[in-house]
Amino acid sequence: MSKINTLLLDCDNTLVLSEELAFEGCADLINEIAAAKKVPLAQPFTGEQLIIEFVGQNFRGMMTSLQQRFGFDMTDAELDDYVRREEDVVIAKLKTKLVSCPGVDDVLARLAASGKYKLAVVSSSALRRVQASVDKVGQAKYFGPDVYSAASSLPKPTSKPDPAIYLHAMDKLGKKADECVAVEDSKSGTLSATRAGIKVIGYVGPYKEAEREKMVQVLKDAGAVIIMDHWSQFDKCLAKVEAGEV
User: What's the whole-model pTM score?
Assistant: First the structure.
């Protein structure tokens, strides 16, 4: 008999098609920071380039990586200010243009109606941004207060692939790893859940056709036990996990 009673869902490009919009705004800000810090970029960052390099990480995590790569420093106050500015830029874009991932709203409605599972969001992004996203597309009713952010919900902000946010979510929900299944679209997110002991359904739907095959392997290598490329496949994937087939 399956013990699974909780579904922990990533937000960006898993529930909502937000990554492209978010990284567009993010690129402008990172190029501004590079200029201010006199970082010699071969060419300015683009949203598309940032997605390839940093999908699944939040802005704080990206800035940590970029400081290490380019050898510049930033005070905590500076970083906090840029994090707030990035949130504002991205939220403004999301409130204008955000839509749900194809097919997910039907699945959420069915899961909620069944009453079989606790539904929660587990994201790297700032809580304000995640809440704005699920509000905009009408998904907030499925999660209530159970929205967890690695950037905002922890005593010390972090980002996936650190498993801290999944461990925190399970603690708050009173759940164990073998009661949960996660859905993730990125390497860092998949690693985060897997490191917390949770089985992951990988989702590659939002990737362009040329990248999709590569991402299937990336997510499998990161620990995803099964892959779907559309939410219409979710029920079958979950059934296989519940049956212990994967």
Answer: 0.87
